[in-house]
């Protein structure tokens, strides 16, 4: 499995946002779909290792995010909705930082993406002085560094002009054979253009899966695509 998570729970104060959420993916492209506030961004930031879950296990390309975080994080990339970067960092510094953290170099493929995003003129601009779209493009380009096995993208089309959006759609389509790409988006047209399989958030909830699906098991075509279910008796992921 490329990404597997099991029994992820998260509570903020008195609000339980994630309750034993489980799933396993092979390679492919999925668009997480669900209403505002259901927990999509929370889940993605937990899967990216940014936010600690209260409970649960996550494996990225076979590496536990808990016990082997460096190995797991080297194989994943994450593009949050909002830019979390220190405002004095330039675009170039961000790209180098990500490459160093992953123990790799900025390869010609990433350079080609920077060119397609017309980012050349902005690489020495500090994040605090970039437009939101330019910040987003820089973070998106950084997601391709190190040939990740898992790409997590939160509202990746937000704030992009049409030309950039088309480049991103083409890039995502190319990647879906090689990696797992999990996007959270309310932009149905964007999701459809990428060819993503829509994955309702409710499908990730353990109790729901137990009662509605797993006693019968998912249909054969879903199993072939790398879906999983939870054993209703012992909670094991199959
Ligand atoms: N750091 C935090 N502290 C307290 N509550 C939080 C925090 N982060 C998220 N929440 C709450 O958790 C719930 C889920 O938020 P989240 O952003 O994950 O939802 P979402 O499905 O991504 O929503 P949207 O579609 O609007 O982006 C919301 O009620 C939100 O207010």
List keywords for this structure.
238 residues, alpha/beta, Rossmann fold, five-stranded parallel sheet, 22% strand, globular, disordered C terminus, binds adenosine-5'-triphosphate, ABC transporter ATP-binding protein
Q: Please give the count of helices.
A: 9
Please state roughly what percent of the residues sit in beta strands, choosing from under 5%, 5-15%, 15-25%, 25-35%, 35-45% or over 45%: 15-25%
Distance between the termini: 11 Å
Return the string of H and E elements: EEEHEEHEHHHEHEHEHH
Percent range for helical residues? 25-40%
CATH topology: Rossmann fold
**Unreliably modeled segments:** 207-238
Report mean pLDDT, rounded to a whole number.
84
Rg calculated over all Cα atoms: 18 Å
Bound molecules: adenosine-5'-triphosphate
- What number of domains? 1
CATH architecture annotation name: 3-Layer(aba) Sandwich
| Number of DSSP strand runs | 9
Structural class, judged by helices and strands? alpha/beta
The quaternary structure here is single chain
Q: Return the CATH class.
A: Alpha Beta
Shape: globular
Condensed summary:
This protein is an alpha/beta fold and 238 residues long.
Question: Please, could you describe this protein's structure?
Answer:
The protein is globular and about 45 Å long. The N and C termini lie close together (about 10 Å). Helix 3 packs parallel to helix 5. The protein is an alpha/beta fold and about 240 residues long. The chain has a single domain, classed as 3-Layer(aba) Sandwich (Rossmann fold), CATH 3.40.50.300. The strands form two sheets. Strands 6-7-8-3-9 form a five-stranded parallel beta sheet, with helices on both faces. A four-stranded antiparallel beta sheet has the order 2-1-4-5. A hairpin with a 2-residue loop joins strand 1 (about 5-10) and strand 2. The chain has nine helices and nine strands. It has helices at about 40-45, 70-75, 90-100, 110-115, 130-140, 160-175, 190-195, 205-215, 220-225, and strands at about 5-10, 15-25, 30-35, 55-60, 65, 75-80, 150-155, 180-185, 195-200. The protein binds adenosine-5'-triphosphate. Adenosine-5'-triphosphate binds near residues 12, 36, 39 and 42. Adenosine-5'-triphosphate binds near residues 34, 37, 38 and 41. GO terms for molecular function: ATP binding. This is ABC transporter ATP-binding protein.
């Amino acid at each position: 499995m490329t990404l597997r998570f099991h029994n992820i729970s998260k509570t903020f104060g008195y609000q339980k946002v994630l309750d034993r959420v489980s799933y396993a993916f092979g390679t492919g492209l999925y668009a997480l779909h669900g209403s505002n506030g259901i927990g999509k961004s929370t889940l993605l930031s937990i899967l990216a290792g940014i936010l600690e879950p209260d409970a649960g296990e996550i494996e990225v390309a076979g590496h536990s995010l808990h016990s082997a975080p460096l190995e797991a994080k080297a194989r994943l990339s994450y593009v949050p909705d909002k830019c979390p970067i220190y405002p004095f960092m330039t675009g170039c510094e961000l790209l180098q930082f990500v490459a160093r953290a992953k123990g790799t170099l900025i390869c010609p493929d990433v350079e080609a993406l920077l060119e397609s995003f017309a980012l050349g003129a902005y690489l020495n601009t500090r994040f605090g002085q970039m437009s939101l779209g330019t910040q987003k493009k820089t973070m998106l380009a950084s997601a391709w560094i190190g040939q990740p096995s898992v790409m997590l993208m939160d509202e990746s089309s937000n704030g992009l002009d049409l030309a950039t959006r088309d480049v991103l759609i083409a890039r995502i389509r190319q990647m879906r054979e090689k990696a797992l790409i999990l996007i959270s988006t309310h932009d149905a047209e964007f999701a459809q253009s990428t060819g993503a399989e829509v994955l309702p958030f409710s499908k990730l909830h353990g109790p729901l899966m137990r009662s509605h699906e797993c006693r019968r098991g998912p249909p054969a075509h879903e199993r072939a695509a790398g879906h999983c279910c939870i054993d209703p008796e012992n909670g094991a992921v199959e």
